[in-house]
Write a structure and sequence with these properties.
There is one protein chain. The protein has helices at 7-17, 23-34, 45-54, 58-68, 80-88, 90-105, 109-118, 125-141, 150-171, 185-205, 212-228, 240-254, 259-272, 282-293, 295-300, 307-329, 334-352. The protein has 359 residues and is mostly helical. The chain has one domain (7-351). It starts with 6 loop residues before the first helix and ends in a 7-residue tail after the last helix.
Length: 359
């Protein structure tokens, strides 16, 4: 996006982006539904896509071609450093992702309408958290989600899920066109920003400050993920400087929490309160989130302030900085920390968000 243009022109571009979904994925999902291909899918959306593409489904073939064509700007080796950052710091990354990135995403009131109407972040919070954290972990664990990897398959599956969500939302009688197209291009770009820019900012506020190389690497990694997710090239920023400009533009337009935003925020806090691995009460989780988001947005999301827990939240960076000092003085610790961190992350996501057993 050319940020030298006037504010009016930039707003017009994003206004247009709010009216557009994902043409390739939407056509593929419509083709799968029309052919009855989902009845035999057994929940394997990517498998259904692959089978129908091989059977001659043109829309499915077009989507497969897009997902397996690597643009000339992609440099997979440059993604490794950013992935390793998340793996070496599983707890800090988990807190940044959940209480920073996800929580901030609820502040985009229009984008939150899909989550409220889908029920996934009110009735089924833990399932949604498992899906999201698995998505992020697989991307990091791949060190670079190249075509053919498990991580690549996760991203393609998520793209298909979003297309099914759009299909379902547009059939509902309570979808308001003033909110834009469900899971539209601006909201998709905003989501990408919380996984990259907001995540990096949260890591810094926790004391796990990324280096310039790590920031550039995480950005490049998620630029590729954004391409795989069907975000238009105009909304895929080329570097961190552009990303921060896009963040400022979108948040000015969209980051205005409403009652639905506050319902989502409270659902998240309630689902995590006193659960492993942190075992922290709701007030503590809210205090950490306030530290990551800032008081203004936290107030808008209805996150309560607690003087005692705020003090604890502000002390957290001391622990993170201690790990960074160890890594600086003993670089050889990075490799074992990375692989230990991946194992810890998998345990955190599997056990921490374990679904209750059905009676």
């Amino acid at each position: 996006m050319d940020f030298t243009r006037s504010t009016e022109d930039l707003d017009a571009t994003l206004d247009a982006a709010r009216r557009v979904g994902d043409v390739l994925a939407d056509a593929a999902v419509a083709e799968l539904i029309s052919a009855g291909a989902m009845r035999a899918a057994g929940g394997d959306l990517v498998g259904a896509l692959e089978r129908h593409a091989k059977a001659g489904g043109r829309a499915c073939q077009a989507l497969m071609e897009h997902c397996f064509t690597v643009p000339s700007w992609v440099r997979f080796p440059e993604m490794k450093v950013g992935a390793q950052l998340g793996l070496r710091t599983p707890m800090q990354s988990s807190v940044s992702l959940i209480l920073g990135s996800l929580m901030e995403s609820y502040g985009s009131a229009k984008g939150a309408k899909v989550l409220i109407r889908g029920g996934m972040l009110t009735k089924h919070v833990l399932q949604r958290l498992r899906d999201t954290t698995t998505f992020v972990l697989e991307i990091a664990a791949s060190r670079a989600p190249m075509p053919g990897t498990t991580a690549h398959r996760h991203v393609v599956r998520t793209r298909l899920v979003h297309a099914f969500v759009r299909h379902g939302m547009l059939k509902r009688g309570d979808w308001n066109g003033a909110w834009g197209h469900p899971v539209n291009q601006e909201d998709s770009a905003s989501t990408l920003l919380v996984f990259c820019h907001v995540y990096l900012r949260s890591m810094a506020r926790l004391g796990a400050t990324p280096t310039a190389e790590e920031e550039a690497s995480v950005h490049h990694l998620y630029r590729w993920v954004g391409h795989l997710m069907g975000i238009t090239p105009e909304l895929l920023t080329v570097d961190r400087a552009q990303e921060q400009q896009l963040y400022a533009l979108i948040t000015r337009r969209q980051l205005h929490p409403d009652d639905d935003s506050r319902v989502l925020a409270q659902s998240l806090i309630g689902a995590l309160a006193s659960r492993r691995p942190l075992f922290l009460p709701a007030n503590a989780l809210a205090a950490i989130s306030r530290h990551l988001l800032g008081d203004a947005l936290a107030d808008g999301l209805g996150l309560t302030a607690s003087r005692s827990w705020t003090t604890v939240a502000h002390a957290m960076p001391l622990l993170c900085r201690a790990q960074l000092r160890v890594e600086e003085r003993a670089p050889f610790t990075r490799f074992p920390l990375e692989h230990l961190g991946e194992r810890v992350a998998r345990l955190v996501y599997e056990r921490g968000f374990e679904l209750p057993k059905e009676p």
